[in-house]
Specification:
The protein is an alpha/beta fold. The protein has ten helices and nine strands. A six-stranded parallel β-sheet has the order 1-4-3-2-5-6, sandwiched between helices. Helix 6 crosses helix 7 and helix 9 runs antiparallel to helix 10. The chain is globular, with a radius of gyration of 19 Å. It starts with a strand and ends with a strand. The structure holds pantoate (PAF).
Length: about 270
């Protein structure tokens, strides 16, 4: 696997490489990322991954400084997964001057996760557009675990007419249902044992809706109450339309249940499609 940190070196390395498939990450890779790398292989000739912990998408009181950086282990995993090229820029490589031109996503950026992480989706969209311009992939893969991120990036790609196919990869879960996430590493042993409750609550909502329950507000409240009773501090549990993440209007619209909740100091997110 080739590793490049400068934009110029990466561009030179990708010349004549055929159909490029791109999987951007912030490192600290787990089986969810590796599954995206493996799927990427099926979509083109050259698989490019990136590792960059993007300061722009972290709020002032978030975990940018303590975000786990495990570069050597990540390289080993990417190499074993058959990734051809890794782009791992430093902050100076990617932001040699303050990033004053940004991508401002529409109103959805202020809802759900955006309500609790102001500026987050602006930071994500800005870095991803920049990475797209650098890597110039034909295909890019993102995990469905960050469901709102996937939707923002899909819409950005469509509205800005970027010639890139966006593919969402299914969430990979531990045996007890916990969605894999780099932030799971922050959990204490007791918190790790408690953590699967989040996915259980989402599944209960899914099952209730499948059985005909349409009291969405009631279902959200039960899940919020159950989480609170077990010591969680929730930002939201929300039943939304898959297409635009607005509240359900069309009775036939496919739905998704999304949640963000804090266990101790760790904020976990998860979602389940119905
Ligand atoms: O999902 C992530 O890891 C990040 O938000 C991304 C897409 C790599 C942008 O920094």
């Amino acid at each position: 696997m080739q590793i490049h940190s400068s934009i110029a070196d990466l561009r030179a390395a990708l010349k004549g490489r055929g159909r490029v498939v791109f999987v951007p990450t912030m490192g600290n890779l787990h089986a969810g990322h590796i599954s995206l790398m493996q799927q990427a292989r099926q979509h083109g000739d050259t698989v490019v991954a990136s590792i960059f912990v993007n300061r722009l998408q972290f709020g002032p009181n978030e975990d940018f400084d303590k975000y786990p950086r495990t570069f050597q282990a990540d390289c080993d995993k990417l190499s074993a997964a058959g990734v051809d090229v890794l782009f791992a820029p430093t902050e100076t490589d990617l932001y040699p001057e303050p990033q004053e031109y940004v991508v401002e996503p529409p109103a959805i950026q202020h809802q759900l996760d955006g309500e609790f992480r102001p500026g987050h989706f602006r930071g994500v969209a800005t870095v991803v557009l920049k990475l797209f311009n650098i890597v110039q992939p034909q295909v890019a893969l993102f995990g469905k675990k960050d469901y709102q991120q996937l939707m923002v990036l899909r819409n950005m790609t469509r509205q800005l007419a970027l010639p890139i196919e966006i593919i969402g990869g299914e969430t990979v879960r531990a045996e007890d249902g916990l969605a894999l996430s780099s932030r799971n590493g922050y959990l204490s042993t007791a918190e790790r044992a408690e953590a699967p409750r989040l996915s259980r609550e989402l599944k209960q909502i899914r099952d209730a809706i499948r059985n005909g329950n349409t009291d969405y507000a009631g279902l959200e409240k039960v899940a919020l109450d159950n989480l609170a009773a077990a010591g969680w501090k929730s930002d939201y549990v929300a039943i939304r339309q898959q297409s635009d993440l607005t509240t359900p209007k069309d009775v036939n619209a496919p739905l998704v249940v999304l949640a963000a909740s804090r266990l101790g100091n760790t904020r976990l997110i998860d979602n389940i499609e119905i």
